[in-house]
């Protein structure tokens, strides 16, 4: 999407007068701009993709979820998220939804260059702060399970909502001609669905707390900001461990709360690892990713999917 300065000026108009703007790189879903206003304030303008034909089933209207979560964060201490300033879902200025939010200070954790957690106190601090954040997020409760912006992917039970989420991904795989072990995943849900019924309260799950979405103080490692809750849902807080450690490197273990080794928790974690691996496999096709890295990336995701389903006995 080519966003003109005139369009950006109109989009930030309800907040202030545009003085300068620069596109932010690194996002693989929405288009994001850093805007300096005439009064010196910095804001971020995030614009959802306009080509809805290339979205996965759960990705429609995601920016509305992000705005909702940012607003929730203003009423729950310690969630460290930007303040939403303006939301435009009219699609009159640009063909996608738009969110204008405050600019967060700090450095993305992924680019700050910290050492290993057992060698660098800053990493240990960041991980401890992230573990505490997971607890605060899980304390925010909702009324129904699933994706807030998608009625088809919501439900009164976590088992029903999660099953709908998986089935939507399997349908996306068919749509994009991506080979996945659908029968094995369905068998795992049938075999272990009762463990999902143990989740009785819908709790806020960011789902994507990898270091690229976390800002830290480069000197101390303190966690100072959290962004991109566009894929947030109401569900099981254990799913957060998978999103925070998508490559399953072991970080999840250091973040895990007490009780994570109970049999039902281990089963649910395996289901969530399989789900995230499935997302990462299927999304490659509509995103039209290219590059030498792609073969190894796909192979790693398929290995994690197979390992999780094998752990589940299917």
UniProtKB/TrEMBL annotation:
Top-level division of the source organism's lineage: Bacteria
PANTHER family the UniProt entry points to: AMINOGLYCOSIDE PHOSPHOTRANSFERASE DOMAIN-CONTAINING PROTEIN, AMINOGLYCOSIDE PHOSPHOTRANSFERASE-RELATED-RELATED
Protein name according to UniProt: Phosphotransferase
Alphabetically ordered keywords of this record: Transferase
Keyword Transferase: yes
Keyword Transferase found: yes
InterPro entries per the UniProt record, alphabetical: AGP_Transferase, Aminoglycoside_PTrfase, Kinase-like_dom_sf
UniProt xrefs under Pfam families: APH
MF (Gene Ontology): transferase activity
SUPFAM superfamilies xref list: Protein kinase-like (PK-like)
Segments forming domain Aminoglycoside phosphotransferase: 22-244
């Amino acid at each position: 999407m080519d966003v003109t300065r005139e369009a950006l000026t109109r989009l930030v108009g309800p907040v202030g007068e545009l003085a300068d703007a620069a596109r932010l790189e690194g996002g693989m879903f929405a288009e994001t701009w850093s805007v300096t206003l005439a009064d010196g304030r910095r804001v971020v303008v995030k614009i959802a993709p306009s080509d809805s034909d290339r979205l996965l089933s759960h990705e429609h209207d995601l920016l509305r979820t992000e705005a909702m979560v940012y607003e929730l964060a203003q009423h729950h201490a310690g969630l460290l998220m930007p303040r939403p300033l303006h939301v435009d879902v009219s699609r009159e200025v640009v063909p996608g939804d738009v969110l204008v939010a405050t600019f967060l200070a700090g450095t993305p954790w992924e680019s700050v260059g910290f050492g290993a957690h057992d060698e660098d106190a800053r990493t240990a601090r960041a991980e401890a702060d992230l573990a505490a954040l997971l607890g605060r997020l899980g304390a925010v409760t909702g009324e129904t399970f699933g994706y807030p912006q998608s009625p088809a992917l919501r439900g009164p039970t976590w088992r029903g909502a999660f099953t709908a989420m998986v089935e939507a991904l399997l349908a996306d795989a068919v749509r994009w001609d991506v080979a996945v072990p659908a029968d094995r995943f369905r068998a795992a849900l049938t075999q272990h669905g009762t463990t999902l019924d143990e989740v009785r309260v819908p709790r806020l799950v960011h789902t994507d707390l990898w270091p690229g979405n976390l800002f830290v103080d480069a000197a101390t490692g303190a966690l100072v900001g959290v962004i991109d809750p566009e894929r947030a849902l109401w569900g099981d807080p254990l799913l957060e461990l998978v999103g925070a450690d998508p490559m399953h490197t072991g970080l999840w273990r250091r973040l895990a709360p007490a009780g994570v080794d109970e049999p039902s928790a281990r089963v649910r974690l395996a289901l969530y690892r399989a789900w995230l691996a499935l997302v990462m496999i299927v999304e490659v096709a509509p995103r039209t990713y290219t590059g030498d890295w792609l073969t190894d990336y796909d192979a790693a995701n398929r290995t994690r999917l197979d390992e999780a389903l094998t752990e589940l006995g299917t």
